[in-house]
Amino acid sequence: MFKLNEIIKDTLAEIQQEFSGSDKEFNTLIKEKSPELLKRTAKVFMSGLCQFYEGKRINEIQDSYAQFLKWNEEIHGDGLEMFLMYIDLTVTVNNDMTDHFKMDKFSEDEKLKFSQLLHLHIKGCQIANEIYALIKCGYADAALARWRTLHETSVVFLTLFTNDLEVSKMFYEYQFIEKLKRLETYEIHHATLNWRPSDGDTVKMLQKKRDELHDLYGAGFLKEYGWTIKFLSNRKRNFKGLEEKVGLDYLRPFYQWANKGVHAGPEGLFTRLGFNDINIPRGYLAGPSRYGMLNPMQFTTYSLLKMTTGLTKLTSTFESKLVQLMLEQLHAAIAEAMIEAKAKLPNN
Question: Taxonomically, which superkingdom (predicted)?
Answer without folding.
Answer: Bacteria
